[in-house]
C-alpha cells in the first residue's frame, strides 16, 4: 500500500464520522442552514489561509524573483490557488470561493457580521484572541481556526499540504447536497448561490484540485518516513477538529430549536 492510500485508510473512520455527522439531518429549514453556515464559513476562510501559506512557501512571491522548489510543485500549488482565489460565480464574475460563500450567506440571510468583524479585526492588527472576542466567534470555530494556524505556523509544508489534502473541503456528503437541493426547490431565491457553490466545489475541488493536492503531498513527503508520520498525525487532528466544529453547529441548532427560536 502506498503512503497516500495508507493515510486514506488510517483516516477513514474519522472521515466517515464527518460524512455521517448528525448535523446534516438536523438541518431542516433555512434557519438551521443559517446556523450551520455561521460555523462553516470559518473553515472556508481559513482554508484560503492554509492555501496561501503553501503558495508562499512553495513559490517565490517576492522580488527579486528566483526559482523556488521544484517546478512541478510550483505548478500544482499555483493551479489550485488560481481556481480557489479567482473562480467563476453564478453570474460569471471572478470571485474567490470564500467570497462566493459570503454571497450565499447573504442570499439566505445568514449572519455575515460575525465573520466580517473577525477578518476586519485581523486586518487592523488585532490578535486572534482579540478578533474572536470582537466577533463573538463560536468556541468550536475558534478551536478549528487555532489548529489551522498551528499547522501554518509550524512552517512544515508537508504537514500543511497533507492537512489541505485530507482534512478539508471535499468532505461534503450526499445527504447535505440533497438537503440543500430540496431547500433550493422550495426557496430558489434564497439557496441558489449555496447550491452553486457546492456544485462548483465538487466539480473543481473534489475532482481536479484533489488530484493536484494528492500529487503535491506525495512530492513534498517523498521518501521521508518522518514526514509521512507527521502528515498522518496532522490529518487525524484536522479531522477531529472538523468533527468538533460540526458538533458546535449541531449543539446550537438543537439549542435554538429547544428555545423555540428556530422553526
What's the topology here?
Layout lengths: L2 H17 L2 H5 L3 H29 L12 H15 L1 E2 L5 E2 L1 H11 L5 H11 L4 H8 L3 H16 L2 H10 L7 H13 L1 H34 L3 H35 L4
Antiparallel strand pairs: 1-2
Helix pairs in contact: 1-12, 3-4, 3-5, 3-8, 3-9, 3-12, 4-11, 5-11, 6-7, 8-12, 9-11, 9-12, 10-11
Which short descriptors sum up this protein?
2 strands, two-stranded antiparallel sheet, 78% helix, 263 residues, mainly alpha
Protein model, in words:
This protein has 263 residues and is mostly helical. It has twelve helices and two strands. The chain has a two-stranded antiparallel ribbon. Helix 3 (30-58) packs antiparallel against helix 9, helix 3 runs antiparallel to helix 12 (225-259) and helix 4 runs antiparallel to helix 11. The relative contact order is 0.19.
Question: TL;DR of this structure?
Answer:
The protein is mainly α and 263 residues long.
- What's the count of strands? 2
> How would you sum up the global shape?
globular
> What average pLDDT do the residues reach?
91
* Strand adjacency order, main sheet: 1-2
Q: Which regions contain 5 or more consecutive residues with pLDDT less than 50?
A: none
Amino acid at each position: 500500500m502506498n503512503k497516500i492510500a495508507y493515510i486514506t485508510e488510517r483516516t477513514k473512520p474519522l472521515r466517515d464520522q464527518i460524512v455521517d455527522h448528525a448535523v446534516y439531518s438536523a438541518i431542516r429549514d433555512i434557519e438551521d442552514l443559517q446556523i450551520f453556515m455561521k460555523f462553516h464559513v470559518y473553515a472556508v476562510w481559513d482554508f484560503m489561509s492554509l492555501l496561501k501559506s503553501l503558495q508562499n512557501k512553495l513559490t517565490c512571491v517576492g522580488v527579486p524573483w528566483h526559482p523556488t522548489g521544484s517546478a512541478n510543485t510550483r505548478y500544482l500549488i499555483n493551479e489550485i490557488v488560481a481556481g480557489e482565489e479567482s473562480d467563476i460565480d453564478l453570474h460569471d464574475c471572478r470571485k474567490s470561493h470564500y467570497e462566493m460563500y459570503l454571497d450565499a450567506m447573504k442570499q439566505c440571510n445568514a449572519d455575515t457580521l460575525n465573520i466580517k468583524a473577525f477578518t476586519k479585526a485581523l486586518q487592523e492588527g488585532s490578535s486572534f484572541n482579540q478578533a474572536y472576542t470582537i466577533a463573538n466567534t463560536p468556541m468550536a470555530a475558534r478551536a478549528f481556526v487555532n489548529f489551522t494556524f498551528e499547522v501554518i505556523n509550524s512552517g512544515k509544508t508537508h504537514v500543511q499540504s497533507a492537512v489541505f489534502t485530507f482534512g478539508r473541503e471535499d468532505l461534503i456528503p450526499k445527504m447535505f447536497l440533497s438537503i440543500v437541493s430540496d431547500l433550493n426547490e422550495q426557496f430558489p431565491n434564497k439557496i441558489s448561490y449555496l447550491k452553486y457553490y457546492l456544485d462548483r466545489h465538487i466539480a473543481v475541488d473534489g475532482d481536479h484540485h484533489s488530484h493536484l493536492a494528492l500529487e503535491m503531498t506525495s512530492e513534498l513527503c517523498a521518501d521521508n518516513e518522518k514526514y509521512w508520520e507527521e502528515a498522518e498525525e496532522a490529518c487525524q487532528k484536522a479531522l477531529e477538529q472538523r468533527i468538533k466544529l460540526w458538533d458546535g453547529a449541531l449543539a446550537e441548532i438543537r439549542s435554538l430549536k429547544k428555545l423555540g427560536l428556530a422553526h
